[in-house]
Amino acid sequence: MNNNYLLPHKFKKMGLIMLIPSAILGFFVLVFEYEPYYLDFNVPAIFLDDIFENKLVFGMVENNILNEIFGILIIVSSLFVAFSKEKLEDEYISKIRLESLVWSVYANYGTLLFSFVFIYNFSFLWVMIFNMFTILLFFIIRFTWQISKLKKAALYEE
User: Fold this and answer.
1) DSSP 3-state of 5
2) What's the per-residue H, E or C state across 66-116?
3) How many other CB atoms are found less than 10 A from the CB of residue 84?
4) For the whole model, what pTM was predicted?
5) Are the CB atoms for 70 and 25 separated by under 8 Å?
6) Cβ neighbours of residue 84 closer than 8 Å, sequence gap 6 or more
7) Which pLDDT does position 157 carry in this prediction?
8) Which of 56, 60, 61, 141 lies 20 to 30 angstroms, CA to CA, from 157?
């Protein structure tokens, strides 16, 4: 089966090595609001400016880039883990991959719908921040779980 959209298998290990520490450290940086002064930089930004009647303005703002670093690391490493080939990639693995992706989209938007109805104010902002990452994380968890079930069934048959 030709899966041109998948990365080589070695990306999965590299992604896991990046994902686990960056997710843990990124979570603690968010929770404890850790912002070291040496990561304060002037960065390009797009924002609405009230002086110019809410027109888009491009400019520089001072920002601590630690959150952006961890966000990028988590997204890139999750993509590596989620979309790298298995050692033995066949049609059944492709079917599991597709089902896991569909399931993760349903779970992600189910969580988002629940949040729209029951979570408000600043707490909703936290839900939206985590929601950026949950579709990939739900996919990784579901796909890994299904593959482990497949391997257990194969071992049980032998």
Assistant:
1) coil
2) HHHHHHHHHHHHHHHHHCECCCCCCHHHHHHHHHHHHHHHHHHHHHHHHHH
3) 19
4) 0.85
5) yes
6) 6, 7, 8, 9, 10, 11, 12, 15
7) 72
8) 141
